[in-house]
Amino acid sequence: MKPDEFERRLEGQPLREIPAGWREEILGTAHAACPGSRRAPHYRSRVPWWRELLWPCPQAWAGLTAVWAVILFLNAVSREPVQVVTTPRRPPAREALRAWKERERMLAELASPPGPAEPSKPSAPRPRSEIAHGSAAV
Question: CB neighbours of 42 closer than 8 A, spacing ≥ 6?
């Protein structure tokens, strides 16, 4: 048969669908024959997104989740109780006013120039030693 004749006869044949069971079996066998493939086959596109995300190694993701759960639990258990810090009570208004007036009085006292000083008393010069005074011992 020449290739032209074969092609004409093939074009004349009606196209038939492959039964669904055959299709699944063929694709499953093809996927099993290719162990390096990590992606899910095209015919399983109805897999939820979260399973597609965890597909490479679900045991590792489960282990990581368990470790985080333990960390969060230990963090919650070991937390110290919150201590409320109280501020000291403000003094009553009368005491505060009295202290303020006392402070103002002291500041005014320190800032005012000193009053008139007592006049200094003139003093007679005193001898610094007995020899200089002229009384010599005989």
Answer: 27
